[in-house]
Amino acid sequence: MLDWTAADPAGPESRKPSAGSGTCHGALLVAVGQLDAFLLLGAGPWDIAPLIPIVQEAGGTFSDLSGQYRTDTGAALFSRPGLHQQLLDIAGAAD
Fold it and tell me: Which pLDDT tens digit goes with each residue over 24-53?
């Protein structure tokens, strides 16, 4: 059991090494069919890579915003089938 009585509430906040628990939540919602798509920006390969097989095994699709199968661009688009290319087209139009 943790003893929180010694914690200093005025102390510095801890640093987050990644985007936090929200990083994967949206992609997992795509995998279970509760979201049609999820765009993750500013993520590292360590954030993206574990999500790819989960979403793909559930029938979803993954790419970066250029449509490539890359985890090193900081962007990941997860979506249900049939929607992925439309979203890539929209993202390309925004350039």
Answer: 889 999 999 999 999 999 889 998 999 999
Written as one letter, the residue type at 14 is S
Specify whether the CB–CB gap between 93 and 61 falls below 8 A: no
Strands 61-63 and 37-41: unpaired
Contact 32, 58 (CB under 8 A): yes
Cβ-Cβ contacts under 8 Å for 13 (sequence gap 6 or more): none
Alpha carbon distances (Å) from 39 to 2, 13, 84: 37, 28, 11
Tallying the residues shown for the chain, one arrives at 95
Cβ–Cβ < 8 Å for 23, 78: no
Q: Which is more confidently placed, 24 or 75?
A: 75
